[in-house]
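User: what does the whole thing look like in 3D?
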Amino acid sequence: MNTTQLERECLTYTQYLIGQMPSPYVVNRYLDFHQKLDTMTSLRFDAFDEFLVGVSARGAFWASMTDSYASVFRKDSVVRKKLVVTLALLECAAPSFEALDEVEVRSPMVTSISLAWRAAKYVFLLGSAAVVFTPVRVAMVFSWKPRAEPVLER
Amino acid sequence: MDTIVVIGSGASGVHFALTALRKGRRVLMLDVGHTASEAVRPTDSLNELKRNLPDPVDYFLGSRYESLILPGRTGEYYAFPPSKQHVFKHRPEFQHRASGFAPIYSFGAGGLAEAWTGGCYPFNDSDFKDFPFGYQELAPYYAKVAANIGITGTNDDLASVFPLHGGLMEPLDLDEHSAALLETYKLHREYLKEKFGCLMGRTRVAALKRDMGKRKQCSYCGRCLWGCPSGAFYTPSLTLDECRTYPTFQYVSGLYVDYFRMDGTSKVNCVVAHSANGQTHEFPASSLVLAAGPLCSAKIFLESIHRESGETPQLRGVMDNRQILMPFVNFRMLGRRWNPNSYQYHQVAIAVERGGNYLHGLVTTLKTALIHPLVQTLPFDLGTAISLFRNVHSALGMVNINLPDHRRDENYVTLDVNTTPHRLAIRYRPRPDEPKELKQTISTFRKILWKLGCFAPIRTVHIRPMGASVHYAGTFPMRDKPAPLTCTKYGRSHDVENLYFADGSTFPQLPAKNITLTLMANATRIAEEAF
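Assistant: Here's the predicted 3D structure for the full assembly of 685 residues, as structure tokens:
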């Protein structure tokens, strides 16, 4: 298991999800999650998964690109699972849970407009992600060879 | 003094036992009895817990992340929290094979109601139609149970479907979202009643508005989902603790009851159990009360009959409430703050009477539940989904709709003797017209919610599998006239003279209302009148 890579994932995903750095506790828990074999069995990689995880860890922007793509084309992907793990850890611990619980108090109308704007941004990002990642995926489908054993560690 | 042997420490067993003890009887309770760990930092609110616990992930998700929901998992929205895992901890000796049914068992001290949501809804005469008694006969026992456990409720529109029995406390403080729903209901009350036969009002819940003995009133700490730390929220283990204060009560845990043995005159004379290390224990019994829940009680009965006679009868008529979960968004609550320091289970109930059929809806306004299981289901990337969720959090709710069930011969439990150990075999088939009924029910509730200013996205509606509601009943129905595999109105078997059923086995019909209060009241009635 590449600890540095996992730490980078946790840091990037936390910045992407709540715009903050993770606490050392969350990072440790993220590493712990990956050490537990029974949870790792649900994180089986193929080459494209590996690619998505690698790209997503480059920074918050890339995390949002890969997540947008995965939200439609790869819902159960490893990158999506890792993001959900990060979210679950953040919502259990201080101070990150406060960022998730925070609400900007506005009228229902303003809230609706703001949400519509956010959704439009998502659609744009999804389109861009599809343009970037679909060719990579197609190329990998043609070049990928199955491994004999599921990969539990990277 | 003869000893009554009671098997199981769930809601039925402990209320039977407590009543028998109060009458001066000697009670021996046999139970597997997995227990919970002590409540952590009992005076902390939920958010304080997140700040103060040295390892909050261990508490909220579990040391092996057993309460974490990852993408790709099918089934329920939520996993049970780690603090309630003991309720569902298995015993390997108990095996089952099920078709059309997804049973849930508990071998925990206090039984399945250790993880219940506290709903206490008395049946009315219509709900008792197939019972050999009516509401009036059970009303004093509803009041007794209410006085024992503490039930809140009030005289509102729902009093016409939830009879007002004695012993009710004033309701808990409403959270803002529930209050908004009731306000909107008042504006449309006549229309909703006329168009859908819909009534709304406060729930009846087993949580304390006032101190009761050593139990403190609800402090609105927001920790209900992870287990009430103050005892304000009732669970049967509290009554088990009360039973233990009687010198005539003996509680033997760690035992898995295999079967009972009979003498030549069709009377139980001994109960055979074994401990985890395989050691066999025998307990003489002058009366045996099965209160292990209909499925576990059925297993003990069937195993005993098979050992005595070689027969494997089918216990026909097993029932369960079909449940529909309907998440919704209340437009009026969008963009508001939400208060984590509030009661977390149902505070508002929706009753729908349609064509003589009663449907029972319980509204939970989502507050402190973990968000990752829901956020990942939204059709966006997680960043957008979190942003959306933050703004709709205060507006989110869920209606849990219960449908009634009736005994039908094609649904049964029996013993599969072709395996070692023998397995309980369960077969359930819904009525052929159920899909139509479910469709109508979903449509009706969506329209009701729309009138209340709420939107329920159709794709998020979840029809739970049979067995998920854990309102099992009907395997040994009460009958006035003796018939094989039935019991008297006092729960006494028509087949075995000194064998009693004090759990849901005896219910000849299953109304849509949650049955736990009636289980407790009926067990109290049986102990009071038959012993």
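In plain terms: The first helix of chain A runs from residue 3 to 18. The radius of gyration of chain A is 17 Å.
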